[in-house]
Amino acid sequence: MSRSATYKHWLEYAALRTTVFLLNLLPVWLILLLCKGLGYIAWVAFPFRLKITYRNISNVFPKKSHSEKIRLLHRVYLEVCQTFGLVFILHRKNFIETIRKAKITGLQELKQAVAQNKGVILTTCHACWFEAYFAWFNMSDLPTTLIYQKQGNPLTDAFFIRQRSHFGNNLEHLSSKAKMPAYEDALNRGRLLIVSLDQSYAPYGTPAHFFNEKFDCAKGSAVLHLRTKAPVFTSVYYMKDDCLHIDFAKVELPQYSAIDEAAINDISNRALKPYEAFIRRYPEQWFGLFHRLWSKEKKYYPPLRRTLKDIFSHRKIADKPKYHD
């Protein structure tokens, strides 16, 4: 472990391990019920980052009415809280089967790209079922490297990496603070390199457009393509009809004559655009709603006052998948 753990880190880690232990004593149906209940409490009493989620959902669905956005956000809070609880129980038998039986689209084209031995820049977005997505790669035969943001607590950081190893050891972790040569090395070794696009890199990103709003997209994927000629793919993951889906698609790119801002911007926009359709279709599964994507300034997220009708009046929410031990 590269960083030394402090007393505070050990306390946080002990609390995490205790919670995970106690949670796993319960049957899956009860865990889901508890997490859904916590989601409802969060929505009613402690709607974390509500100003941010409301502004973001307004960018995604500018034509929806206020009441429609509120109903949608209610589903978002329930979904996010319920999925968070599943992170700690994905190793249960039925969830492993769910990952094994995932429906994959575009896998053949992805494997053909890997076979070229140039590596593949696999872009993605922050969705709720991210741990199931990572687990699938660990269980697959595709050499994969994940660029991830290390947690401030080295003990919990190592814990989540170990959790993923329950499904195999195919997924390599590379810090987001690593330098460009480390990412190029992964591609030169013929690996998939997972890069999240839906996070703001202001003021250092390239000014792309996301849902018709200026968005500072990270330049890394574009620069890596220009330097290595590795193909760029998109990937999304979601639950539909109680089944995990993972969809891959190649981003069609022209030949670029130079590594310049125009080329970087064009690649970034081409890679980012396909995620809009996915997010509009499955907004409640997009965790990026909670991030300050389009601006870091507070004035971009005006105060939001909710009425009792906003809080408690909503259409019936469809039942979630029914898992059993």
Explain what you see.
The protein has 325 residues and is α/β, with parallel strands linked by helices. It has one domain (7-309). The protein is built from 13 helices and nine strands. It has helices spanning 7-23, 28-45, 50-60, 66-86, 93-100, 107-115, 130-139, 154-164, 180-188, 220-228, 261-272, 274-281, 308-312; strands spanning 103-105, 120-124, 144-148, 171-175, 192-196, 206-210, 213-217, 232-240, 243-250. The strands form two sheets. A seven-stranded mixed sheet has the order 1-9-8-2-5-3-4, with helices on both faces. It has a two-stranded antiparallel sheet with strand order 6-7. It is globular. Residues 316-324 have low confidence and may be disordered.
Comma- or semicolon-separated keywords:
13 helices; two-stranded antiparallel sheet; disordered C terminus; alpha/beta; single chain; seven-stranded mixed β-sheet; 325 residues
Question: Quick gist of this model?
Answer:
The protein is an alpha/beta fold. It has helices at 7-23, 28-45, 50-60, 66-86, 93-100, 107-115, 130-139, 154-164, 180-188, 220-228, 261-272, 274-281, 308-312, and strands spanning 103-105, 120-124, 144-148, 171-175, 192-196, 206-210, 213-217, 232-240, 243-250.
